[in-house]
Amino acid sequence: MTSIQSHDTASKNWSIEVNLVRTPDEYAMAMAIRAAVFLGEEDNITYADEFNGNDFVATHFLALVDGDPAGVIRVRWFNGFCMLERVGIRKRYRSYKVFSALARTSIEHIRQKGYKIIAGRARGETIKLWRRFAGTQTGPEIHMHRGTLIPVLLDVPYRPEKGHMEVGPFGDPDYEDLLVQEEGSWNFDRPIKHHRLAAE
Known about the structure:
It contains five helices and nine strands, in the order ββααβββαβαβββα. The N terminus and C terminus are likely disordered.
């Protein structure tokens, strides 16, 4: 799943959509949000701190509120775990609803890719937001140039009935077809045979 549509029935009747960033225009929107939030609002973060080269090796999710760029979250992939970071939401849209839509979409994408562990760092009171997603603090506060951060870990729920990536069986036509499908738009409905192909 690469997008979530939700309608807020509270005081702000926002339509929130979260998309996997796929185009140069979406990427520009994501970086503009990061610049507005971290460079525009934070006195201790420099351009080199915020845009450090990891953006081109990561996956980004972009939240739109009524079509306007509102929030972003970045995922970096490691062996056995991934890192959720650089969560930024523009001041006018800063709310639990936007954060929740970003978190749910990115966590579901991570689950579909077969990851079971998510690491992250919370800033101050945002630890409460991650606890709503069963995030737990894994150690004492870390004092970094970006400020004081709290290390957080989330266990990704195992939902095989909703489909997820597995390792192999390589060579199986259905599995090979799954691997070449567009990122985040996988069709898990086709049966995959779990057998070893005979060596020739």
